[in-house]
Amino acid sequence: MSSPLRIALAGLGTVGTGVIQLIEENSALIARRAGRPIEIVAVTARDRSKNRGVDLSAYRWVDDMGELATASDIDVVVELVGGSDGPALTLARETLSNGRSFVTANKAMIAHHGAELAKLAESKNTALKFEAAVAGGIPVIQGLRDGAAANRIDRVYGILNGTCNFILSTMEKEGLDFTDVLSDAQAKGFAEADPSFDIDGIDAAHKLAILASLSFGSEIDFGGVEARGIRKILAADIAQAKALGYRIRLIGLAEIDGENGASEIFQRVQPCLVPLAHPLAHVTGATNAVVAEGNFSGRLLFQGAGAGDRPTASAVVADLVDIARKETGPAFSMPSSELEKLPRAASAHRVGKTYIRMIVADRVGVLAEITAAMRDAGLSIESLIQTETSDDGSALIAMVTHAGPEQAINDTLKTLAPSESLMGEPMVMHILGE
Amino acid sequence: MSSPLRIALAGLGTVGTGVIQLIEENSALIARRAGRPIEIVAVTARDRSKNRGVDLSAYRWVDDMGELATASDIDVVVELVGGSDGPALTLARETLSNGRSFVTANKAMIAHHGAELAKLAESKNTALKFEAAVAGGIPVIQGLRDGAAANRIDRVYGILNGTCNFILSTMEKEGLDFTDVLSDAQAKGFAEADPSFDIDGIDAAHKLAILASLSFGSEIDFGGVEARGIRKILAADIAQAKALGYRIRLIGLAEIDGENGASEIFQRVQPCLVPLAHPLAHVTGATNAVVAEGNFSGRLLFQGAGAGDRPTASAVVADLVDIARKETGPAFSMPSSELEKLPRAASAHRVGKTYIRMIVADRVGVLAEITAAMRDAGLSIESLIQTETSDDGSALIAMVTHAGPEQAINDTLKTLAPSESLMGEPMVMHILGE
């Protein structure tokens, strides 16, 4: 058996300690699979004295994270510090510049600086790997890079944020509104104290940008991801969706739009109505799932735990096994020079069914006003439900349109915006095609 | 860009022509991902004159398949001939002996001779790859070998035969009995003229043996797979299962039984009742799905098209991309010398809920006789339905037991075997745990 792969861990939060536990518990098995042992040499974190429930005495403690990048006895630095810039980015640049491999779970950093880091890794002929950055323990980076490698992929989408899926599943199960479930999730530790990265769709957008680049062979373009979160979803939306045969999920979707000859890239994170016949409708709790549509494979689905110390550690160590086996290629599946810079596609001409929910003053002529605006925009209605909402005399109107361009929705909402019948902003959710 | 990977195709059925179409259609993309082009050099099949809908004129036609193994201008032989022995096996041995790589979709050959071929490949330092042998276009071999590499996997299971899943889904949807759906599936080309490999579970057993070896790091043991098919399932079974909250699926399951200290391997293909909350209950039509339970990753699900020319071609070419990238290790994820030879676990002490259906003569005391036999075997009933079946005075009794050892089921059936109340053999199906 060859010499061990020597690694250093920067960051000893739950994922970092998970990596230590995994490497200790499965060491013999990993050595059999990787062809050589994986050995932790050094560790670093902000606070040395903190009790993390793992024994660190066998590993060299380093106070200055920067030392890891240049230490002569380290082959791979594993970064679990987080943050798109700052110390994590400095460590990545220094490690790769020094010709060492770099493994990270840091989706924000890869979404913002992945292109630069991938080029740096290539120029130094070393590995940059980030399986743990997308969908926790699900080996979807590998699935796209290797398993689906023979395919042209024109669409990749999925449930990329466990917190949102947990909140939506719980809202559905308990019939509660968003804010109630969020407080409960925070109390139980399923949601962060500041949950905006999760619930506003930013975290899912980071992951989507990474998946899109790998799927399409395009330069990563996080700035091109439109993101809307789940804050404004009511228990009533979930109930109406259910009555119509749908479940609401936060979906990140990236697609190549080749309609006008040239390839354009469309990327959006938003709550969608998912038909019950679609596998994503059955993904509940903190589970993640990614669908990639290949021109030969057809629809591939990868599903599993989207977060958590142990699943994320599983993804980190999968990258280490690849490095130990010397099975590492370019970070985004092809050399940076081969990645295309695709223009962004506009959403206005995208065609699909749409769910629109409005809270309206319950008075004569409201429905006539709304339906006239829709007619003028060329938008036709497939189904409509009007229900009373409360004692204040307002009513809830929920409808699903026939397939039409998003521009028609925009036009309708623009016409209705000044209307005094509308109480608050309408909720618009697209319906995921089967 | 490096020199092309030169391949030869043996077998030009639907999958073979699919591989040609894929390599032609996606050639530029494949070269970007693989770092070099993949080039078809030679082809062979039984009948040269047959019109296959693809233009073969650019490729050297070889009449004697054996030539491919030794031709100096071929790096990889792709075998799509089929058959566990015979010409396919000869070609595999000769190609690997000659130090060339070998890619196959031949599950029967790998199930029977995979251990021998893997050793041969290792001794010649060349690659043996068979992604297409399991679950069509789903990259599950790669998922287990690479993505889940850090995990101890103690259980792998799934829907491994598209024909059976298509038949079961259709029986459910249409309320028809097995034989009616089979004839229809045969007429439409979804089932073979001789469907026994599929519907008796042999095809799924081949795939299960391969998955088990990869998951557990154990020597492949096809002889140790118990296989039962779907021939005896009635429309009434599906209806009763549905009433009880289950769907019937043909499940291949392999598990490490570590109860008595030593690790034993259990492998079985059989129809099971799958709870609606389980993702496999929602896999319909010819789709396949595989679940692997890792000790860190938790439950990983891989789902997609289980057969068909294009998905299978996607898997074949994924292997070729790996070879082009020089990212190939031992066939079963670790060197043959590291694979453990595990003893087979007995089924009798396995514990679970079970569905039992009997057709009985509708006369006084039948239920008393059955329930007494169950009581004597220590088996308790969770739910029971008795319905009339037909005009002949027989009745159908369907029940689900509480969790108990399989031995108790065996004992009950043994007691009841001589009974004149039973019309035909009882149907026993285990319930898949959530």
Structure write-up:
2 copies of one chain form a homodimer. The first copy, chain A, is built from 14 helices and 18 strands. With 434 residues, the first copy, chain A, is an alpha/beta fold. In chain A, strands 7, 8, 9, 10, 11, 12, 14, 15, 16 and 18 form a 10-stranded mixed β-sheet that branches. A 6-stranded parallel β-sheet of chain A has the order 3-2-1-4-5-6, sandwiched between helices. The N and C termini of chain A lie far apart (49 Å). Chain A folds into 3 domains: 5-133, Rossmann fold (3-Layer(aba) Sandwich); 140-305, Dihydrodipicolinate Reductase, domain 2 (2-Layer Sandwich), CATH 3.30.360; 351-431, Alpha-Beta Plaits, CATH 3.30.70.260. Chain A has helices at residues 14-25, 27-34, 66-70, 86-97, 107-123, 140-147, 162-174, 178-187, 196-199, 202-216, 235-243, 309-324, 366-377, 406-416; strands spanning 5-10, 38-44, 60-61, 76-79, 101-104, 128-129, 153-159, 225-227, 246-257, 264-275, 287-294, 298-305, 351-352, 354-361, 381-388, 394-401, 404-405, 427-431. At the A-B interface, helix 1, helix 2, helix 6, strand 12 and helix 12 of A face helix 1, helix 2, helix 6, strand 12 and helix 12 of B.
